[in-house]
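Q: Hi! First time doing this. I have a protein sequence and I read that you can turn it into a structure. Is that right? Here it is:
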Amino acid sequence: MAQRLDSLSIADARALALAAQGFDTARPKTKATQRHVDALISRLGVIQIDSVNVLVRSQELPLFSRLGNHNRNAIPKATEQQKLFEYWGHEAAHLPVEIHPLFRWKMEAARLGKAKHWGLTGFYNDNKAFVKRMLKHVEKNGPTTSRELSTRTEKKGTWWDWDEAKVA
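A: Yes, that's right. Below is the predicted 3D structure, encoded as structure tokens:
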């Protein structure tokens, strides 16, 4: 029978918190392989996407902090291999395809305009022609950054100053 645990020492609590986040094992001694990356993503369950990239793209930081040297294209490669998909989990995120079914209700609600993702549904409803032009461009030209699609004429502001192309 398992023993009841009434308290944890500070050291045990710290160790538990670090282990839960994947910091309980040493980094690989050599460059991490795609297998290391896949295992880490499976363990973490999510890699949040953030547009802030002072050092590197934010989604690369969890990989580096836990694996060290790794292929910088590991996340796109996992997505290409259909191991990951991008979606609004809690935030914009790379998620393991195994949990895709858990989000289908949310995807359907968004498709029907019944769920709002940071006002994206409202933006779409107000800018359908623009969004459709952006979609046609991506369908014709393949993966495209929002910067390549930008229609901004004025100087970019601070923080979350997204133009229409980035929202679309």
